[in-house]
Amino acid sequence: MAIPNRKITNAFTDSTAESGYVWLLPALVAGITVYLVYLKTHPYPAFGAGLFLLMAEQVSQHGYALPATIPHYASPIPFAYPPLMFYVVAAIRDLFGVNPLLISRVLPGLVTTLALVPCFLFVRELLGSARQAGLATFVVAVSPPILQWHLSAGGIVRAPAFLFLVTGLYTGLMLFKTRRVKWLVVSLALFSLTILTHPTYTVFFVLSYLCLFAGFSRTIEGLKDGAIVGCGGIALTFVWWGQILATHGTAVFSGAAGTHGGLAQKVPNVFGWVRPLLLPGGLEVASGTHSGDLISLGPWIVGLGTVGLLQLICGVMLAIGAVASFIVDEESQSKFAAIVSDHIEEIRKEHATLPVFSSLPYPRVLGFLLGWLLLSVTVISQHRFAYLIHSIFVAVLVYEFLLPTLSDITPPRIKRGHLEFVVLLVLGVACLSGGVLYAASELDTHGGSSSLPAFIDDNDAAAMTWAAENTEPTSQFLVMGDAAEWFPQSTDRAITTGPWGVEWKGPEAYDAQLSQFIDASTCTDAACVSHSIEQANVQPNYVYVPTDDYTVRGMETAPSNSLRASLNEADGYTLAYENEGVVIFRVTDDATTSTTHQQVESPAFAPRIPSDHPAGIKEH
Predict the structure, then answer these.
(1) Nearest-CA neighbor of 157 among 238, 48, 60?
(2) Could you point out which of 22, 274, 334, 502 has its C-alpha 20 to 30 Å from the C-alpha of 548?
């Protein structure tokens, strides 16, 4: 069934170079700039990837057979993760001898920048405008929710998953529009790669294809193509998930799905997904926030938010027509689309400043975008996916309302090309500045903490080297702070407490480890440390204490001035190592029996973890 795709064009969307890649260049420059700034300001990678790198080591040590469990973390962790990138990282290390820290620092940004190309192709095909595709891709390149998950250390897994996803969006759109076999084969391959890379991106891949089918095919043939991609991907990856089921059963998948917010755990409140739409992606970058209150950067941000509200009203009105097109016949669709398009054109003639979608393909693209956004935020509680969609709304807002409206109210002597250049320059500089500051970890974006903190520094690296060379291989460490995430991979020693990887054992186990880790990491005296050890029912041989600024679940805090002195004086703790930023105490049996533990005071620092922060909802 054909679906009408009528447009009302304006001077800002017509171009003889609509298919040219020149509109992609600003996004690539922005992406490369953000990446280079990140490398310059981060001698150690942001956040954590120690578990990922240890898994790659395990793959190599097992002769590239799939290990059953992952050692050295708080409890034996099932090796149930999609393994593709662990094999890739293992091969890079074995073939080229690259330092694992360097891999986790460099690889994510390279892949994230590469993903901008298929992102551009997808939006260009979707909107029929290279200009809008270039702007949307630019927003993706500088959006904090996308950067925080893909540029940081964990991007060694998430960035490739993002690349497979956005490439799959483009091939899926081409598949449902053309039904050519080559797009079917490529889409099947990309879905299979996504399954083998990251579970959350796999879910978003499926949701996106459902929306693409509903928006651009809705035929038996389209349904067959979608089924081939879905069922074929599952079949091709059976060699992995079949082994996981045989080794661990289905509990590992159901358990992981119940952590980190889960899948479809709750219906999102309207404001939660409308607010980012009113101040989408790149515009929120300019404000320096993405999950907190907006800071003032001038009235133009407020103005664009107001424009977004008006645009949303128009979008809802048009969405009604988009929904109606699903249930009426082809002839009625064509008539309805023609009537609405003509009516919009007449309104614009009478009210030049009315915010209308002047050239957006109607109604299927609008219906697809709104449906895609709503379904995504309902099923997946991760902002990075919503912001991918928001970037398209930004481009539509600028080109279909802002530029035509400014053209109508500015003097005729100002050429449209000059107006477009100035508007895009102002937006580009503001958004790129925000993206650069975010990548440099110069913005306080969550609870007063910097945007992309590193979990470890030179002092941690030195302390971990000492632990690897001067302790027994069977030694266990209670590591305070997020350095614990890197500790097992860096030392080949076990930690007693920490939530990383425990999501595969279910929500209860994960929540217990998370609580124990935060309690221990925020202790201010020896009594608290001993109490944490007792409560967790563990027997560490050493306690690793940061004495310089450190992070707990990504939230920066200063160390307790009294903790080191308290441990020095307490029975059961003996100083074994120290440098300018870390002290390590050896623990004896007296630590939990002779240290009088009275009422444990609340720690001086109680981290407030935003729901969308990668350290706060650590996802492996």
Answers:
(1) 48
(2) 502
Rg (CA), the chain: 26
Report whether 127 contacts 93 (CB < 8 A).
no
Looking at the DSSP bridge assignments, the partners of residue 478 are: 543
User: Which are the contacts of 441, defined by CB distance < 8 A and separation ≥ 6?
Assistant: 41, 42, 46, 450, 451, 452, 453
pLDDT tens-place string over residues 251-291: 777 655 555 555 555 444 444 444 444 344 434 443 444 43
Instruction: Name the nearest CA neighbour of 73 among 429, 368, 615, 504.
Output: 504
Q: Nearest to residue 21, comparing CAs of 120, 111, 139?
A: 120
Q: Are strands 362-363 and 444-446 parallel, antiparallel or unpaired?
A: unpaired
Q: What size, in residues, is the chain?
A: 620
78: Cα separation from own chain's centroid: 24
Q: Where are the alpha helices (DSSP H) in 505-606?
A: 507-521, 526-536, 563-569
Mean pLDDT of 311-328: 48
Residues paired with residue 557 on neighbouring β-strands, in sequence order: 550
| 183 secondary structure, DSSP code | H
| Angstrom distances, CA of residue 361 to CA of 4, 33, 208, 480 | 8, 33, 19, 54
CA dihedral of 187, 188, 191, 192, whole degrees rounded to 10? -150
Nearest-angstrom CA–CA distance, 376 and 366? 15
CA angle 423, 424, 429 (to 5 degrees): 105
| β-strands 476-479, 542-546 pairing | parallel
Residues 504, 508, 513, 516, Cα dihedral to 10°: 170
Neighbouring C-alpha atoms within 13 Å toward the C-beta of 36 = 7
455 — phi, psi (to 5°)? Answer: -75, -20
Residue 466, both tokens:
């000492």
Residue 216 in tokens: 């651009």
